[in-house]
Design goal:
The chain is of the alpha/beta class. Helix content is 38%, strand content 22%. Helix 5 links the parallel strand 10 and strand 11. Helix 13 packs parallel to helix 14 (392-408). The chain starts with a helix and ends with a strand. The model is unreliable at 243-258 (pLDDT under 50).
């Protein structure tokens, strides 16, 4: 985004005047602007009408009183491109291009979209093929359908790649405070990352929510996300759609272990972006952060007026990593005198019905309980339905006591209904006005709190140890080198490999004897990626006779199953001692995300277990350590059931060296997969390796 585009985006999002070009669609835009309360000038452009929505029509854009700050464009494709050229020439600010039929239509549409981009120049363009933009703060609705949503003066900026989803979100009955809604469409000129970069500078934006189908410029998104991180504006992402890994490296195990969705997970984790998996969770997480703020940790104080509610809180909290910690000794001493005899002092606290609805009794209980300085607090309340709400005053009284106690201790707070719809509009509005999040659904509430706490912790980590930017390069064709060459690269990089000799078949027995038994024999050829599949290796050979027999057997098997790879070149290796654990460690160059590291259970477990973690590079040793801890196999590394512990320091050192080798680019590497990587009680060895380099 150029400086001029950024200035024009400001004009588009906060316009003094709006031009709407089209027919029936702009009637709706006129009505939505009016309903939103837009106080600026509204100029319809239509040569066949006198007025639209009560506003005088202009025959052409050249007839407008001045260059408009914002334009809603809803005319056919060819006239739209021509109109953009004229708007650009007259100095318009920005355009919502509702017109479709561009890049989403394939090759011909892409050519038309290129013409549209050229016509746009430095104007700010949202779209094409989008719904538009709603500015809830300044009451502007450049939107072709009826919309909902409200704003208490601050809120979330939501950017979606689906127009219908953006419309659906505005209609939600969840009292999410909105600041901006942008339907990005094809993102011909301005993309998700451009909007993020702009919106994080606006003080009314407390959180940014994204619906992502795909990113066009991952490094640009990284820069925008890190800017948001610095400004403490959390980003929440709903990523939809999966696809094959961009680099399509099918000869290795890595492609099946880590596809594009895993790379997005790695990107989000790297940047402190909260990932959610459905629209309800998106809205509830947005709401908690925007209204209640960010908890400093995972310690939560909970209240219910039901034992069942307390159990549900405790059960789900355990799943998402929240802690309902035991009350302090002081609270245990002070609180019993304030509670009914039937109440059991615990966290979550069931304060029981005898004091329900009496502020003079509940306020001291809540205030005393929260004196333990929790990171967040939540009370479960399901309000009665309209017409059955004669007892609502008691719920409201307890909510008021809870709000006051949370304010006293400056604790991020939420009132949570067990059933999402059991929290009425009046109550939601009251809570938001007091800085307490009205959360709808126990699972959604606790997951939102856990996500907010994760973000705060991840932000602290990233600010303490700043990232080095991703290294993305154009896609190259590549080829596999043989195992001997690949291991030579690893050895030169300081990574331990088994002692070995490269010989012909006749010399193999003598080579084995010089290395010392037992040994491994492998036929060497660049196309032998998976040697066991074609019988190209033999393990644990303990004599020269066994080596002679293995050479003959391997030669016959490869000649039969993969004749083009058959040759008389063998790698004779010393057998490495039985490891504590085996890992797969892979680094590969992806054309969209740059270098990615995948760690997984190795050896035969690679095919049996779904146990892998991916992170993007460059990364730090602490990042690698955190990644290893996420693996199921990490239990073996730490000494499972009294077994020996693995040399984790040697493992970390190996991963760091692997990263250094990949990022050096001296060898034009595209992928290195070590499988298995043996981790012993002392030391770490690359037992087998696949290496691809650029053609």
């Amino acid at each position: 985004m150029t400086p001029t585009q950024k200035a024009n985006l400001h004009r588009l999002l906060k316009p003094r005047h709006v031009a709407a070009i089209g027919g029936r669609d702009i009637e709706v835009v006129a009505n939505e602007c009016k309903r939103r309360g837009f106080s600026g000038d509204f100029w319809p452009v239509n040569p066949k009408r006198d007025q639209i929505g009560g506003h005088k029509c202009y025959a052409s854009v050249e007839d407008l009183p001045e260059a408009p700050d914002a334009v809603f464009l809803a005319i056919p494709k060819e006239p739209a491109i021509d109109c953009l050229t004229r708007l650009n020439q007259m100095g318009a600010g920005g355009v919502i291009c509702y017109t479709a039929g561009f890049g989403e239509m394939g090759e011909d549409g892409a050519k038309d979209e290129a013409r549209l981009i050229e016509a746009t120049g430095d104007m700010a363009l949202i779209g094409p093929n989008c719904y538009g933009m709603i500015n809830y703060v300044d009451d502007v609705a450049l939107w072709p359908f009826a919309h909902g949503g409200s704003c208490p003066g601050y809120g979330a900026a939501i950017i979606t790649q689906s127009g219908m989803l953006s419309s659906d979100l505005t209609m939600s009955q969840r009292s999410v405070p909105f600041a901006y809604m942008i339907s990005a469409g094809n993102q011909a000129t301005l993309r998700l990352e451009d909007f993020v970069d702009f919106l994080v500078d606006l003080p009314e934006v407390k959180v940014i929510a994204l619906h992502i189908e795909g990113l066009k410029d991952v490094p640009a998104f990284e820069r925008a996300a890190l800017k948001a991180l610095e400004r403490s504006v959390p980003i929440i992402a709903l990523k939809t759609g999966t696809s094959e890994i961009g680099s399509a490296l099918t000869i290795s195990h890595t492609g099946s272990l880590s596809g594009s969705d895993d790379l997005y997970n790695a990107l989000f984790d790297r940047l402190g972006v909260i990932r959610v998996y459905n629209p309800s969770q998106l809205l509830e997480t947005v709401k908690f952060i925007a209204v209640a703020g960010l908890p400093k940790g995972v310690r939560v104080g909970g209240f219910t007026c039901s034992g069942g509610g307390a159990t549900m809180l405790a059960d789900y909290a355990e799943k998402v990593g929240l802690q309902f910690t035991e009350p302090s000794q002081k609270v245990k001493t002070d609180l019993p005198a304030l509670l009914p005899l039937t109440a059991t002092l615990s966290n979550p606290l069931d304060y029981t019905t005898p004091i329900w609805g009496f502020p003079e009794k509940t306020l001291p209980v809540f205030t005393s309980f929260l004196s333990d300085s929790y990171d967040a607090t939540v009370i479960v309340q399901d309000y009665p339905a309209p017409g059955l709400d004669e007892g609502k005053i008691y719920y409201s009284n307890d909510a008021g006591s809870f709000v006051e106690a949370a304010k006293t201790h400056n604790t991020p707070a939420a009132v949570c209904s067990t059933i999402p719809e059991n929290l009425d509009q009046e109550t939601r509005d009251y809570l938001i006005s007091n800085g307490v999040a009205p959360m709808q659904g126990i699972d959604e509430c606790l997951q939102a709190i856990a996500s907010a706490a994760w973000y705060q912790n991840r932000r602290n980590e990233l600010l303490a140890e700043p990232l080095t930017n991703l290294l993305v390069q154009p896609k190259h064709s590549n080829h596999l080198i043989d195992e001997y060459q690949g291991k030579a690269l690893l050895k030169d990089a300081g990574i331990s490999v088994p002692s070995s000799l490269l010989v012909d078949g006749e010399a193999a027995p003598a080579a084995a004897e010089s290395l010392g038994f037992p040994v491994v024999i492998k036929m060497v050829h660049a196309s032998l990626a998976h040697k066991s599949d074609v019988g190209a290796l033999a393990l644990n050979l303990k004599s020269t006779k066994e080596v002679e027999e293995a050479v003959a057997s391997i030669s016959a098997s490869v000649k039969k199953l993969q004749p083009k790879a058959a040759n008389d070149l063998f790698l004779v290796e010393a057998m490495v001692a039985k490891p504590v654990a085996e890992l797969l460690a892979s680094v590969r160059q992806d054309p969209e995300f740059g270098w990615a590291l995948t760690l997984a259970s190795g050896g035969i477990l690679t095919e049996l277990l779904n146990d892998a973690v991916t992170l993007l590079l460059p990364a730090t040793e602490s990042d690698f350590e955190r990644a290893i801890s996420k693996l199921k196999i990490s239990k073996l590394l730490n000494g499972y059931r009294g077994q020996a512990k693995a040399d984790v320091r040697a493992l970390l050192s190996t991963i760091v060296k692997l990263q250094t080798l990949a990022l050096s680019q001296e060898k034009a590497l595209q992928e290195i997969e070590i499988n298995p990587l043996f981790i012993l009680e002392e030391g770490c060895y690359a037992v087998d390796a696949l290496v691809q380099i650029q053609d």
